[in-house]
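Re: [ENG-882] Designed sequences occasionally contain unexpected residues at chain ends

Forwarding the minimal case from QA. Structure tokens:
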């Protein structure tokens, strides 16, 4: 059964063969801080020729727009219209939008977070609205287009329309661009051309239209945090309302992968069929015929696939599925090239670009969601955190290690660990599976792929999805990102407890966190005990140390704080071979990090625990 991916209230809820359901949904993660005449056309009642401009503005006449800056004043607070860069980000040359018309443009700012003290305003909404209505009499199909540049941080940048000047509908925003922060990301291309078909928002018989651009924070629940009110700036120019081009096929979603997840490294034991598909919409005024999505694979194997040729009516959506799945077979690199073709030449090719070709590998032991090209990182400043990805397991397999890359800037001696949870296929609950010991990073381990050995091998179950996470107990640790993920498949956990939904945030960047199935990895197990775990961890009152004794043995435990002071002891006692549990009552502990040292016979091992 394939996962069904549906956009719902801004979150992607994933269901299907694996338990990626509402029990493990997460919110998006807040980024870390780090001249010519106006071209408005005269009103007309007869329909215009297809693809023509009904109305346009290049901001050469600022009075064509109404600005509402929420009672803020000054060129860098809210919207302004001129030819000068006034915001704090970039220099004057880099910040000016390189639009077709040049000259005046609309610029959005909200103070300067780099100033001392920072000057961004809180609790503001900034609006830029057409002063007069646009006559759309007799126009059944409409396109809103404009040029923009800037970048997204924690702000919300919306495009809106109204048919009465009072009730507004959001027809698009910039949340698909990804965030730019000290951890990575990019500004928008200068300029970026936006083309939005608004026909579905405009009922037949409509005669008037207003256009508005709105700015505020994406995180109103954190409105008292000044960081959510930072903006790098947002520039708009060359706004137009037009009728559609004759032939305009737009890609609305581009997918490849297995059951909703794309892997750039696939171990031979986890090979499964790979799907390729496109969701497209005919934004033109005429049908597109013989629409074909082609996928060509070369390298370790040769494959050519395509969908059944489709006819897509004007205004219609369609899904183009490659009719035959591709299943790789041997270790090696698989190079993927894709094309989209139709009988008619597309008038607006910019909105159906498939991007660059890419490759993935079949490996002996490594399972990776990241693309191997480190670009930015995930961090949580001085606070505890985890980052990682979902992995689907198709064949039962024992895992002994988790691979990770820590980005340059991570302090030497930082304490880090790997932890794995599974999602119960029946209940959807998040269940602890195992973890590595806590290690202190050396200089040689930063900026390169390293393996964190699990304290005990984990038997991963077929038909099960796992959270594979790497966490930190130290400040300023940076887990590298490499590539992008669809929402609800790569995660950031604020703190140390993934089972609390409020702690989970999805992120669109893919953490460099991988499963390593190499059977030769040497897991440091006790010779007298196995399957050692501490759960729950973090804990509020009591936690349990669980282990399997291989023979009768004397067992004791000591809990110490980070200064080495003993806060609890479990006296030595004789325990029988088999599964055993030691309960640790931490109700009197202060919130913080502790070490629990288990002694079995003459052997000792230490686990890190966290009291909430």
């Amino acid at each position: 059964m394939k996962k069904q991916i549906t956009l719902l209230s801004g979150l992607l809820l994933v269901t299907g063969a694996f338990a990626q359901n509402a029990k493990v949904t997460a919110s998006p993660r807040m980024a870390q801080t780090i001249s010519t005449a106006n071209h408005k056309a005269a009103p007309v009642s007869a329909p215009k020729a297809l693809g023509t401009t009904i109305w346009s503005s290049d901001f050469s006449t600022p009075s064509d727009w109404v600005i509402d800056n929420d009672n803020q004043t000054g060129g860098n607070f809210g919207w302004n219209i001129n030819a000068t860069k006034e915001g704090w980000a970039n220099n004057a040359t880099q910040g000016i939008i390189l639009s077709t018309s040049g000259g005046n443009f609309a610029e959005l700012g909200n103070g300067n977070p780099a100033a001392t003290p920072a000057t961004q305003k809180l609790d503001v909404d900034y609006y830029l609205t057409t002063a007069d209505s646009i006559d759309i009499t007799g126009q059944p199909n409409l396109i809103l287009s404009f040029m923009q540049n800037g970048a997204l941080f924690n702000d919300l940048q919306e495009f809106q329309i109204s048919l009465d000047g009072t009730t507004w509908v959001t027809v698009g925003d910039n949340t698909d661009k990804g965030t730019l922060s000290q951890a990575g990301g990019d500004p928008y291309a200068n300029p970026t051309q936006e083309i939005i078909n608004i026909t579905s928002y405009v009922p037949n018989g409509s005669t008037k239209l207003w256009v508005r651009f709105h700015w505020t924070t994406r995180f109103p629940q954190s409105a008292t945090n000044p960081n959510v009110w930072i903006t790098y700036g947002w520039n708009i120019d060359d706004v137009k309302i037009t009728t559609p081009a004759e032939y305009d096929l737009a890609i609305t979603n581009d997918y490849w992968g297995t059951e909703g997840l794309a892997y750039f490294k696939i171990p031979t034991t986890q090979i499964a069929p790979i799907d390729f598909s496109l969701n497209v919409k005919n934004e033109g005024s005429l049908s597109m015929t013989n629409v074909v999505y082609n996928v060509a694979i070369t390298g370790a194997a040769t494959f050519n696939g395509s969908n059944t040729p489709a006819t897509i009516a004007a205004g219609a959506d369609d899904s183009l599925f490659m009719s035959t799945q591709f299943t790789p077979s041997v270790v090696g690199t698989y190079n993927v090239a894709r094309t989209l073709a139709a009988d008619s030449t597309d008038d607006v090719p910019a909105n159906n670009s498939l991007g660059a070709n890419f490759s993935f590998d079949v490996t002996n032991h490594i399972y990776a969601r990241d693309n191997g090209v480190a670009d930015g990182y995930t961090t949580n400043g001085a606070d505890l955190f985890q980052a990682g990805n979902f992995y689907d397991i198709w064949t039962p397999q024992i895992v002994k290690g988790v691979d990770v890359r820590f980005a340059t800037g991570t302090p030497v001696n930082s304490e880090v660990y790997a932890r794995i949870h599974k999602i119960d296929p029946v209940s959807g609950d998040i269940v602890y599976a195992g973890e590595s010991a806590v290690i202190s990073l050396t200089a040689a381990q930063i900026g390169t792929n390293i393996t964190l050995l699990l304290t005990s091998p984990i038997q991963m179950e077929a038909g099960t999805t796992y959270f594979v996470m790497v966490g930190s107990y130290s400040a300023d640790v940076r887990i590298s990102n490499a590539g992008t993920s669809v929402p609800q498949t790569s995660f950031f956990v604020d703190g140390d407890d993934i089972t609390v939904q409020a702690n989970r945030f999805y992120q669109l960047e893919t953490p460099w966190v991988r499963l390593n199935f190499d059977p030769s990895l040497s897991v440091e197990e006790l010779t007298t005990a196995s399957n050692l775990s501490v759960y729950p961890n973090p804990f509020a009152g009591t936690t349990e140390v669980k282990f399997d004794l291989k023979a009768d043995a004397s067992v004791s435990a000591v809990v110490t704080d980070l200064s080495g002071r003993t806060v609890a002891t479990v006296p030595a006692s004789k325990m029988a071979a088999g599964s055993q549990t030691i309960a640790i009552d931490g109700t009197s502990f202060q919130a913080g990090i502790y070490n629990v040292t288990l002694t079995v016979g003459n052997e000792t091992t230490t686990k890190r625990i966290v009291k909430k």
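QA comment: On inspection the terminal residues look reasonable. The domain at 53-242 is CATH 2.60.120.260 (Jelly Rolls). Proposing we downgrade this to a documentation issue.
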